[in-house]
Amino acid sequence: MRAWFLLLIGCAWFVRAATLLSAADAPDFDRQIAPLLAGRCLDCHSGSESKGGLDLSTLQGATKGGESGPAIVPRKFSESQLWQRVAAGDMPPKKPLPENERKLLQAWLEAGAKWGSDPIDPYRFSTGARAGYDWWSLQPVKSPAPSSTTDENAIDQLLLAKLREKQLSFSPPADRRILIRRLTYDLTGLPPTPAEIEAFVKDPSDSAYEELVQRLLASPHYGERWARHWLDVAHFGESDGFEFDKMRPNAWRYRDWVIDALNRDLPYDQFAKLQIAGDVLAPTDQQAVIATGFLVAGAHDSLLPAGDAMRQIMRQDELEDIVGLVGQTFLGLTVHCARCHDHKFDPIRAHDYYSLASALAGVRRGERALPAATVPPDLADKQKSLQKELQTLEAAVRAAILAERTIDNKAAVRAPEPTAEWEFDGDAKDSRGSLHGQLHGGAKIENGLLVLDGKSAYVSTPPLAKRIRAKTLEVLISLNGLKQRGGGAITLQKLDGSLFDSIVYGEKEPGHWLAGSNFFQRTTPFAGEVETAQENEFVHFAVVYEAEGQIRGYRNGRPYGSEYRSSNSAMFEAESSQVLIGLRHGPPGGNKHIAASIDRARLYSRALTAGEVAAAAGVASSYVSEDELMAQLTPNQQAQRRRLQEELAAITPKVDYHRDRKTFAITPAQPEISHLLVRGNPQQKGPEVRPAGILSLSPKAADFGLAANAPEAERRKKLAEWIASEQNPLFARTMVNRLWQYHFGQGLISTPNDLGFSGGQPSHPELLDYLASEFIQRKWSLKELHKLIVTSRAYQQASMPRSEAIKIDSNNRLLWRFSPRRLEAEAVRDSMLMVSGKLNSEAGGPSFKDFLPVARGGTQFYQPQDLEGPEYQRRSIYRMWARGGKNPLLDTFDCPDPSTTTPTRGSTTTPLQALSLLNHSFTLRMADAFAERLQRDAGKEIDAQVALAFSLTAGDAPTAEQKQASTQFVQKHGLAPFCRVLLNSNAFLYVD
């Protein structure tokens, strides 16, 4: 009996030991089973709409089972519906489990099906069907150690490692003529000149190439070239699109901001932050406000439906575009795909989408008034230092000149005779001539002053008796301590109001005022020396307009603010122009009355000198002319002064001369509390969401700590900081991949807007992380990154194909050569202008319109036109990018539609391209101009003309065969048809 008892005890112990052993050997749920279920099952069997009613994401759901019964029966795996379906090959339906996963699942079920984390997070692990939190692009950036101790560029080391795995190597270095053409196009979008090519070819020094890189990166054309790439991604357009397609007259300012930011190498983290929240981070910085044009660069449907439900849907569509733009541009993720449901391929929940949308929910679009132009905060100290150095350099010389003037009595300049003068001694008559003024509205004469109420009061005169181009406007005025908003003091204008020059007052900040002038409807504010407007304080102002277009302002007889040079001075014809006092712009479009007391006003029919203005103001002249100053400086001092002026000009904001000092940017509004919308339907509101980043990717960093009703400004500020953080691995990786793509024709990831599951794996992951880490270490300098890339052996390779390499890597993903590329549409047009000698290098300002706008039924249409003249010969980036304003030549060469983001341009080859280059009126005109240039620059000898033509278009001399054929062609058909042939040649259209 005792033996039986001991035997039973032993059996029980054995069974328990076996159970304990099997439990110890059981697969780990969180590490092995959860990833299996997440990758194979949960796409169909999780959530409230699980197929067959089976939810395998929770223990309760799995135990309960679905329509066919319990999915899991612990230790009875053969009775578990889950196992039965898997064993029969029914589940997963399209691709049965491989044998190793079947055994893993069986072992887990046999061991008791012990559950772990509940519920299973479907995003925790990447699978063959979707990305998880462990997806490569979401991991911290790691800088790989160099593969050797040589001086080889790290880029080349990492590329060579991959090439050697395939028994491949780099191609030989490119010919120097090819290299300078490649690099110049790459960094500036324009061809090098023959002189630049010859200088580079003849310079054998080791530093020649690096010096070339530096020079091109310092060129203003660099910003114009690379801004076009950025505007493609931002889907920048200068009209609304959709049904009405209304123009956005001031959208060009954002384009100019991008160009300027790139040219001055604004750190990329700041570049991004300003575009998301510039008006919040630097509210008084004009350029920071302009930068927010990025968020509203896309198309906008201005046709509002009548129903509230449809308006809400339209608003959600608009928000999706903004969220998608931010997500793809800075993070390389298609966040907007989670608007209606959790992302199908990336670990982004619908809740994440609405959190991000909440951070951007206050973004509205429209015209926004600009603050006065100021130096960016990061350059303010440098500006002060340069200004002080310049003042120190000039001070002693200026003092000596003024002292000499006093000794020689040169300062005794008499006040000039005005063309017309109004002294308001009892009336508004002209005391010098016949332009007798007439009082309007509330205007009145009191105690020898013209008193204006700022509402309806002003004075007008009869038409001029003679025409005036060069002119000076003068006024002695008191604002009586009142704030002003752009009121006119004295104005010379055409009777129809189409043109006017004026002294204008406007509020810069409460209690302050400034003066300016209008020229061809451009406002020239004399900012920077703002004075407090004291009550009963009379100030003398004069604005001088020279016939050559120079405009100068004076306050109390001394130079005031920044000078401005226009292309010409306005001509005011006799009998069709008049003077206004107290009104900026008269009938029929009269506006901006001024509230002030005016002691006198004068008009001069010539440009006064500085001394004459000082005499008119009753003060001695302290103005020293440029010629006087330069004559007293030594050659070394002159060179030093020029350098300081150039450095100051590079960082000092350009004065805004456009009449309408506004920009198309965000016009923020405090949003309502955001909700998760079920299936994206605004009528089915789910739980509240707080402004945040993508919480599932970085729970701590992406939690902004804001309430659901947080101020709009705080939302975008926090978003900008989260996106542009060094800790955000997507931020650096996305941008370096874009740069790599534009330099080599394809990115290390072939989908620059998608670094998620659908974008796939990088061809060189170590290289991508090396570039990202270098980008951060080099303080986000884009120019430093350019330099690192273009100085590599990989970039300087020849482009000739190699048969053995093509068999292994036909797409050149391993970069065994430099892939030849056709010029983009804009580069084709710009190069035609340049080689023909017609390129107008004027930078910035309002866009030129290569179309005729036609309004019909409330809709704006754009009729393409090939217009002539310098304005239409500027670089293509300065054309007005109306969404409906197509350019047949550019469109033929795959110029993208600005209604959609274009991270990668297509490059097609079609018959229309050949036909356009042969027959388009622009091509014909450029061929004629090209021929005229050859005759002018090369002389009458055909051989010299042919040689110059090849040098300009192909960067090289013609071969003997080409020279002979070209000479015969010119003799038979003429020079212009020959130029037309070269503009159609592969040597012109392709970069090796």
- Cα shape: globular
Percent of residues in β-strands? 5-15%
Number of helices: 32
Span between termini: 97 Å
**Would you report the number of β strands?**
26
| Overall radius of gyration | 36 Å
For the sheet with most strands, the description reads: 9 strands, antiparallel
Average pLDDT, to the nearest integer? 87
Structural class: alpha+beta
Low-confidence runs: 1-22, 507-513, 517-533
Helix content: 25-40%
Domain DUF1553: 715-969
Signal peptide: 1-17
Domain DUF1549: 155-364
Region (Disordered): 47-73
Give an overview of the whole structure.
Residues 47-73 are annotated as: Disordered. Residues 41-94 form the Cytochrome C Planctomycete-type domain. Residues 155-364 form the DUF1549 domain. Residues 1-17 form the signal peptide. The protein has 32 helices and 26 strands. The protein is of the alpha+beta class and 992 residues long. Among the domains are: 27-122, no CATH class; 230-369 and 669-763, no CATH class; 371-411 and 623-660, no CATH class; 420-620, Jelly Rolls (Sandwich); 921-991.
Short description:
The chain is 39% helix and 13% strand. The protein has 992 residues and is of the alpha+beta class. A hairpin with a 4-residue loop joins β12 and β13.
Summarize the topology:
Elements: H1 2-25, H2 29-40, H3 59-64, H4 81-87, H5 99-110, H6 154-165, H7 176-188, H8 194-201, H9 208-218, H10 220-233, H11 252-263, H12 268-281, H13 286-291, H14 308-331, H15 350-359, E1 365-369, H16 380-408, E2 420-422, E3 438-440, E4 444-446, E5 449-453, E6 458-460, E7 471-478, E8 488-494, E9 500-506, E10 512-519, E11 522-532, E12 539-545, E13 550-555, E14 558-559, E15 564-565, E16 577-581, E17 583-585, E18 591-593, E19 595-604, H17 610-617, H18 626-632, H19 635-651, E20 662-666, E21 674-677, E22 685-689, H20 712-723, H21 729-744, H22 765-777, H23 782-790, H24 803-808, E23 821-822, H25 825-835, E24 851-856, E25 859-864, H26 888-892, H27 911-919, H28 921-938, H29 942-954, H30 960-973, H31 975-983, H32 986-989, E26 990-991
Antiparallel strand pairs: 1-20, 2-19, 3-6, 4-5, 5-19, 6-16, 7-12, 7-19, 8-9, 8-16, 9-10, 10-11, 12-13, 13-14, 13-15, 17-18, 21-22, 23-26, 24-25
Helix pairs in contact: 2-5, 6-22, 7-8, 7-9, 9-23, 10-11, 12-20, 16-19, 21-22, 21-23, 27-28, 28-29, 28-31, 29-30, 30-31
Signal peptide: 1-17
Domain DUF1549: 155-364
GO molecular function: electron transfer activity; heme binding
